[in-house]
Amino acid sequence: MAAAWLSSRGAESYVSPMELIQPVAWSAGGSGVRILDQRQLPSREVYRDLHTIDDVCDAIRTLAVRGAPAIGIAGAMGLTLALNGADAGGDARASVASAAERIRVTRPTAVNLTWALDRMLSVVVAPGNGAPVRDTLRHALRAEATRILDEDRNMCRRMGEHGAALIPDGARVLTHCNAGALATGGMGTALAAVYVAVEQGKRVHVFVDETRPLLQGSRLTAWELGRAGIPATVLVDSAAAALMRAGEVDLCLVGADRIAANGDVANKIGTYGLAIVARHHGVPFYVVAPTSTFDQSAASGDHIVIEHRPADEIRCGFGVSTTPAGADVFNPAFDVTPASLVTAIVSDRALHRPPFDFSHGR
Predict the structure, then answer these.
(1) Mapping DSSP to helix (H, G, I), strand (E, B) and coil, where does residue 34 land?
(2) For the chain, which residues score pLDDT lower than 50?
(3) Which of 3.30.1360.70, 2.40.128.50, 3.30.390.30, 1.20.120.420 would CATH assign to domain 21-155?
(4) Which CATH architecture group holds 163-352?
(5) Is this prediction's pTM over 0.85?
(6) Least packed by Cβ within 10 Å: which of 192, 197, 224, 356?
C-alpha cells in the first residue's frame, strides 16, 4: 500500500518541523505567551497571544495548546503572567503560587504540567538583592521558563536520535494522536524518531490514526507531516487492526502523557487498544517520551488520574450532532497501556527495555 510513496518520496523533500512550527513561544516584546491555536488546524493557522492566567488556563483546558510537553511549557511560561497584576512585596509570591494551582488542575493526567510548575515554584525565593520582589520574580520565572523550553528542544532531539535506530529504511510506521512538534517545544516525541530517520536518508511512510473524538491525528499529525514533506495516510482508529492483519505495519510509535514507575503508560484514549492489536499481530509497540513524563510517585497505571472530557465533545463535536440529545457519554481523554504490552520506551536518556526500572530518577 505504501510502496509507491516510499519509492517516490524521501529525505530530499523533508523540511524540519522546527523550521515551520512553534506551538509555544514568548510574544513579541515579551509581554505575553504566543501559541499556535491548534483548535483551528488544519483549516487555519492562527496564533494567539495570552496575557492573563485566565487566558493560559483556557488555552490549556480547551486544547488550544496540547501535548504533554507543550502544556508543561505553556504552563511554565504562562505563570510569569501572574505578576502582571500583582503588587510588589509579599503579594507577588502569593499571586504566583495561586496562579500555579489554577493552571495545575486544567489537565490532571499529563505529569509534565505539574513537573514544570513545580520547577517554576522552586525559584520563588527571597531575592536578597534589594530589588523589587515583583521585578525579581518576573526575571527569575522568565529565565526558568526559557530553560524549560530550551531543555525540551534538546530532549526532543535526543529522543529522535534514540528512536530513529528502531526505524529501518522503508518502514511503515503507525502512530496515534499527535506526538510531534505541535505537542512539544522541539521536533516532537514519537514523531521526532521519524524526523531524524528521514534526516538520515531513510524512507518512511506514516499511517496516522484519526484519533477520535477530537481527531488530533487527522487534523494535526497529518498536517504536520505534510508540512515536513513526509508521506502519510490517515485511517480511522478502528481500521488499525485490519491494516496490521494485512501486514502493512512494521512498528507502532506513540507518545505518553505519564509513565508510571513500572512502565505502565498513560496516553491518548485508544492507545491501549492499539497496543493489544499490535501484540496480537507481532508488531513492535514503542513509546517515546521525555524523562519529564516519568512519574516515580505512581507505582503503576492504577495510580494515574484519568481526565474525563465534556460530553459535548462526543454529542456534537465540531458543531455537528452525532448522538441523540441527552445521551449518556463516556469520554476519557486517556487510557493506560500495561507495561507488558510495551516493546520498549524511548526517552531522551536511553532506550529502555522490559523489565522497566526508572529508579535512577530524572
Answers:
(1) strand
(2) 5, 7-11, 87-89, 129, 361-362
(3) 1.20.120.420
(4) 3-Layer(aba) Sandwich (3.40)
(5) yes
(6) 356
